[in-house]
Fold:
Amino acid sequence: MADTERFLIGESFVRACLPARPADSHKGTFGRVLAVCGRYGMAGAAMLSGEATLRSGAGLLTVALPRSIYPLVASRLPEAVYLPLPETAEGTLSKESWQPLKQELERTTALLVGCGLGRSPESDAMVLALLRAAPCPTVLDADGLNVAAAHIHTVKTSGQPLCLTPHPGEASRLLGCGIEEIEADRLGAARELSAQWDAVVVLKGHRTVIAAPDRPTLINPTGCSGMATGGSGDVLAGMIVSLAAQGLTLYEAALSAVYLHGLAGERASARLSEHGMLPSDMLAELAHLFSEYEPKA
Structure:
């Protein structure tokens, strides 16, 4: 264990990364996030990632989503701004969504793409167009990663900092190998992904691994088995993009978010049990965690 401890994320690092919030701040001080998330049947992913974004301190959040799920998401998250977009018959974003998305990108501080997004030729083309045009740090999750797997050149040449958040199955598609190979050497897989894609990589799972070019590869010591359920990754993606919008590097944002995400899971499980906790229960813990970890004025 002593050797492993050298590679663990430390609490002191997380505390040092979190930005102070000056008394004379306004909502623009803490960044503007654009989250392109959700499809018909997957409104929950947009809800969870969106609330995590706001609970982690971003000043402004615009959720771009198919028109059909706008009423559901807005009823859960009234604090966000919404960009309801044209959709295909399957409930994914259509090609007519591009112009409004392009306009919104021009004032975006950090971009999140993929949570519950779904796959279709038109939606996939939208993801690639977003990556080409993004003027800011970008977090790719879920179907955003699945689209990227076949387009490494487009992703690598986007010119902006990039964070990939794969679970082992998504990592296997990105690397073109079996899941068993990923799990046999999680540190090596995360480092290889980071090198191939020139990106910060958050390889999710028990003891999540964070790798980045020319930075130490670290293991997260927090978390519990109650987090192994659909929606936990959406919460994490929202936390990472929120901290990036507030000025942290994607490496700092990923390390801090993963550590606090795990703590939120531990606290939710202590209160509700690992069987009974939900990702939304982790959201309820974030405000308490940030009250402990944010710098005091």
Strands lie at 32-36, 60-66, 81-85, 110-113, 138-140, 162-164, 200-203, 209-212, 215-219. The first helix runs from residue 2 to 5. The chain has 14 helices and nine strands.
